[in-house]
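Collaborator request, handled under Task 6.
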Amino acid sequence: MQEDSPVQNKTDAPHTGQPQRAGRRNRLIVLSAAALVALGLGGVAVATTGGDHPAPAAVSLDAQSRAEAASRADRSARESSTPVASPSQTPSPSAASASPTPAKTATAKAKPKPKPKKTTKPTPAWVNPMPGAAVTSCYGQRWGTLHAGIDLALPSGTPLRAAAAGTVTQAGDASDGYGNSVFIDHGNGYLTHYAHQSRIAVTVGQKVKAGQVIGYEGATGDATGPHLHFEVHQGMWNQIDPAPFMRTRGVDLGC
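Structure tokens returned to the collaborator:
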């Protein structure tokens, strides 16, 4: 009886090892199936075996799958939230150039203001024949005879001007002590007479304007010094007082 013990031990060892190897093989099969189910369905699979502990490989595979799914979902959300510019939203060059920009407006040069035109005052119908002259004698009796005009004095050679527009009827020596004289017919029944000129600047028949130079002051004829002897005729050789006549026409000769 005692000699048979070693033989029995040898024969029993394989029988004890086979159930253990079969149990391990069964657990591996179950774990593989659980992993496949977890990957295909995305669910939680817990594979159990004959033992009391859950399979750690299935749990780790399931956590990895969920992490990858969450990462994909998060990445897709970020990519879809990034705005994509539509080609139709890009402003066309023509539209951009059509709208005015403040820079162009700011740099635009201001238009220069037009210069005011120089205007000359119209010449009055009647003017002073020698402006600024001193009156040396007025119309009236002098030395027992009629002084038929007004004497105006300035330095010799001062220009003499037509008192109003008209036509020159005489230009030259008028005799009777007047010296070089000019007569202008104003076409309204009145004539003006300019005597004692040193030089005459117009000719008979010439049209003149008010203020136009007709000669230069002098002392020709019966004159004690250079001056203008100015007369107004209502008809030829019908002298009247020039002072009130010219005053009613806006000219003050000082008499």
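The cover message to the collaborator said: "The two ends are 189 Å apart (CA to CA). Confidence is low (pLDDT under 50) at residues 1-17, 41-59. Please let us know whether this matches your experimental observations."
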